[in-house]
Design brief:
alpha/beta; Rossmann fold; 2 domains; five-stranded parallel β-sheet; 45% helix
C-alpha cells in the first residue's frame, strides 16, 4: 500500500469514527481491533484517531475499513487486494480456470511459488468467510499479470470470459496456456503456450521467463 493511499484511508476511518462514537467508544473500538491507544484525547476525535493509527500495519487499516464498511471507491482510492495478497511482496498473478480444472491451476500455483509469484486460484484461495465476488473483483483489480488455462469449455464459460475481459481492459500482461482449447476472442492474438508433455515445473519456469522479459512485468518479477 502506498503511503499516500494509507493516509487517505486513515483519514476516512477518522472521519467515520468521529461521526459514530464518543472518545471512550473510539478507544474501546480501537482496542477491540488490537490497537494500543494513548488515552490522551485532546479536542478532536478525528485527530485522536489519526494519531493512534499512524504506523499501524496496513492489514489492520484495511480490516477496519472493511469492518466500518467505508466506501473506498467513493474516496477515489485503489481497490484493496484480496486477503491472500494483502502486504504480499510477491508478484501477483491471477490464474483463470474452469472450476472442474482447479487441481491443474493449484498444481501450477505451487510450482510458481519458488519464483516469488503469488498465483491466485479462486476456487482454492478465497477465504471461506469472504464474499466470493468481492474477492474476485479485488484480485482482478490488483493483479499484475493474468494467466488463462484454456481447457475444453473455457471459451464457453461466462465467468472465465468476464475475467478475460477484465484483464484485457486493464491492459495487464496476459499469458494463455493451451490445454485442449485455443484462445478465442480478444486474447486470441496472444501466442499461447502449449502444454505438450511438459511438467508443471517446466511450464512455471517458462511463465517466469516470460514475466521477466516483458516490459509490463519485468520490474516486478525478481527471479
Amino acid at each position: 500500500m502506498r503511503p499516500s493511499h494509507k493516509l487517505h484511508l486513515i483519514s476516512a476511518i477518522a472521519a467515520e469514527l468521529q461521526q459514530r462514537y464518543s472518545f471512550n467508544d473510539i478507544d474501546a473500538y480501537l482496542q477491540e481491533c488490537g490497537i494500543e491507544t494513548p488515552h490522551q484525547f485532546g479536542d478532536s476525535k478525528a485527530a485522536y484517531v489519526k494519531h493512534t493509527l499512524y504506523g499501524i500495519d496496513n492489514s489492520v487499516v484495511t480490516r477496519i475499513i472493511e469492518d466500518l464498511e467505508i466506501n473506498v471507491a467513493g474516496l477515489n482510492l485503489p481497490t484493496p487486494p484480496p486477503k491472500n495478497w494483502i502486504d504480499s511482496r510477491t508478484f501477483r498473478l491471477f490464474i483463470s480456470h474452469l472450476a472442474l480444472e482447479k487441481d491443474k491451476a493449484t498444481r501450477l500455483r505451487g510450482t510458481l511459488a519458488p519464483y516469488h509469484i503469488s498465483a491466485l486460484v479462486a476456487h482454492q484461495d478465497i477465504y471461506p468467510t469472504a464474499q466470493w465476488q468481492v474477492e474476485i473483483e479485488r484480485a482482478l483489480s490488483t493483479m499484475e499479470a493474468f494467466l488463462a488455462i484454456h481447457t475444453k469449455g473455457f471459451s464457453a464459460s461466462m465467468w472465465a470470459q468476464q475475467e478475460v475481459g477484465f484483464a484485457v481492459a486493464r491492459r495487464v500482461k496476459i499469458i494463455s496456456l493451451k490445454m485442449g482449447e485455443d484462445p478465442t476472442g480478444f486474447i486470441s492474438k496472444h501466442q499461447a503456450l502449449s502444454r505438450l508433455n511438459r511438467t508443471a515445473e517446466e511450464i512455471a519456469k517458462e511463465v517466469n521467463t516470460i514475466l521477466l522479459s516483458d516490459e509490463l512485468t519485468s520490474r516486478r518479477s525478481t527471479i
